């Protein structure tokens, strides 16, 4: 298949038990004019998959990280459109068909990227949470720094389908980031590309006990600070969502038992937008009291 419409790029590192499920979900798409590009980021044991003419495996002898592996896959991709699938996640069978049909029917000026819904599931396949993307983030916006629609979530970035050339024109994925990779990428993508959202779930994010880069506390702190420093002007232009972003980081720091970092970032969030964060804290306390009373 020399010129498929879609390239599904799967970076992988030391997940031989999960990768075949991700690859199979890509091959099981109802839209068949596609290729699957697996980038083996220096796994201890080279990737081994069943033979399929639609699957290419690119083996890297030295690790470059998730962003670097995505760049390798993007450069090698033959499709007009690209999407990225984590090696521990799965696509639902209609992901490609729905996304590409919506892109074809889009009545906004190109370039356009498409997002769709995402489910977080446990290892038994039970749905833990469901997230739907914003309906529209016009070109020139800054995605998760904009005020969200009620009931919509910016934590759907994994579902992106976009033209390969758009990714290359904005410089690909920033390989200096090992955490916050999607957040950094979207802060460069949305200014150059309109993002539309489908209210349909097409992607399953697997919750498991294995190692995740996003679970590394020190790396999360470093990447958080680097992200704000790199995109300071965008953050400063959106004080309310900047404060919300810092507040959510404080919560995560607390959950990871980084109490000093949690307090530091909570105070920072309060300084950025006192009214908003005070309101968030107030309703959080009321919610806890309500739960306690019912218990």
From TrEMBL:
Q: Which UniProt keywords apply?
A: Transferase
Recorded superkingdom: Bacteria
Q: Which InterPro entries match?
A: Glyco_trans_2-like (IPR001173), Glycosyltransf_2 (IPR050834), Nucleotide-diphossugar_trans (IPR029044)
GO MF annotation list: transferase activity
Q: Which CDD domains does this entry report, sorted A to Z?
A: Glyco_tranf_GTA_type
Provide the Glycosyltransferase 2-like domain boundaries. Answer: 7-100
Transferase listed as a keyword: yes
Q: What is this protein called?
A: Glycosyltransferase family 2 protein
Q: Which organism is it from?
A: Oscillatoriales cyanobacterium SpSt-418
The organism that produces this protein has a lineage beginning with: Bacteria, Bacillati, Cyanobacteriota, Cyanophyceae, Oscillatoriophycideae
């Amino acid at each position: 298949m020399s010129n498929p419409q879609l390239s599904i790029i799967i970076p992988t590192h030391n997940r031989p038990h999960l990768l075949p499920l991700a690859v199979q979900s890509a091959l099981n798409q109802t839209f068949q004019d596609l290729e699957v590009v697996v980038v083996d980021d220096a796994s201890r044991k080279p990737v081994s998959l069943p033979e399929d003419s639609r699957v290419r495996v690119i083996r890297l002898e030295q690790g470059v990280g998730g962003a670097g592996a995505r760049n390798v896959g993007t450069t090698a991709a033959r499709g007009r459109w690209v999407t990225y699938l984590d090696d521990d996640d799965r696509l639902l069978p209609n992901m490609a068909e729905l996304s590409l049909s919506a892109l074809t029917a889009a009545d906004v000026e190109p370039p356009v990227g498409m997002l769709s819904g995402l489910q977080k599931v446990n290892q038994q396949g039970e749905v833990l949470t469901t997230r739907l993307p914003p309906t529209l983030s016009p070109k020139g916006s800054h995605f998760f720094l904009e005020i969200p629609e009620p009931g919509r979530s910016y934590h759907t970035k994994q579902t992106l389908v976009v033209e390969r050339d758009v990714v290359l024109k904005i410089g690909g994925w920033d390989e200096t980031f090992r955490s916050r990779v999607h957040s950094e990428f979207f802060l460069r993508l949305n200014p150059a590309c309109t993002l539309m959202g489908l209210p349909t779930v097409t992607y399953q994010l697997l919750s498991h006990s294995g190692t995740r880069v996003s679970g590394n506390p020190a790396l999360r702190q470093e990447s958080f600070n680097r992200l704000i420093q790199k995109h300071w002007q965008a953050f400063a232009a959106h004080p309310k969502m900047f404060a919300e972003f810092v507040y959510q980081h404080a919560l995560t720091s607390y959950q990871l038992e980084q109490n000093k970092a949690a307090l530091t970032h909570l105070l920072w969030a309060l300084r950025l937008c006192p009214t908003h964060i005070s309101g968030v804290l107030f309703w959080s306390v009321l919610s806890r009291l309500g739960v306690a009373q019912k218990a």
